[in-house]
Amino acid sequence: MAWHKNFNDNWDKIKDNYDDRFRRMWNYYLLSSAGSFRARKNQLWQIVFTKIDSEMQYKRVI
What we know:
Layout: H1 2-9, H2 11-14, H3 20-39
């Protein structure tokens, strides 16, 4: 809810770069996320695809 409040409190500073459709979608996203957190029904998944010969190393956390 803090992200939602900060976004709307500062909308006047960024509104020249975005249209009203973006504002409505972003508000929907923020409020949907807040509802999901409150319901404790959300999950976060991160999947990283790399080439077999990649030198990148990722630590697996379970």
